[in-house]
Amino acid sequence: MSRIVYVLNGPNLNLLGKRQPEIYGRETLADVEAACRAAAKELGLTIEFRQSNREYELIEWIHEARERAAAIVINPAAYTHTSVAILDALSAFDGPIIEVHLSNIHKREPFRHRSFVSGVASGVLAGFGVQGYGLALQRVARLLADKPA
Ligand code: DQA
Predict the structure, then answer these.
(1) Which domains does the chain have, with CATH numbers?
(2) Low-confidence ranges of the chain (pLDDT < 70)
(3) Residue 148 alpha carbon to ligand 1 centre in Å
């Protein structure tokens, strides 16, 4: 069975560390990738780590994941709150989907409280900072292990 996990990051996350550090912290996207690679190694998972500012590209990657990946970890960033297209793409993916947000979106502006993605996610992590990605991968490993062959 595939142990490939797509870790997808949405718009503006390339600016992590520089962008509103009081909300998102000082760690960069490269730090997030390093944390994911370390967690994946520990868990025996292989990751495809990607970021895009384009909705189209994220959708293409979700389609690609249908063919290649056992699970998806996604921080859709602002598209969380706007994108029916990303919801639809994720709905066509068969394996576990974990939604991650660095910040606690429920503590923030009301428009961030709604997530289109949560309706198709196996689980949601918000407010755990970079650690949330590692926790998401731990959960993926558990869900894949529990999956009947
Ligand atoms: C975010 C939260 C979103 O509301 C925001 O648009 C982001 C990042 C987070 O990781 O906390 O860009 O997904």
Answers:
(1) 4-146 (3.40.50.9100)
(2) 1, 148-149
(3) 34
pLDDT value of residue 149: 60
Where does ligand 1 bind, in terms of residues with CB under 6 Å? 12, 75, 77-78, 80, 101-103, 105, 112
Measured by CA distance, the residue closest to atom 13 of ligand 1 is 77
Query: Residue 20: how many CB atoms within 10 A of its CB?
Result: 11
Read off the pTM: 0.96
Q: What distance in angstroms lies between residue 103's CA and the mean position of ligand 1's atoms?
A: 7
Q: 101 an active-site residue? A: yes
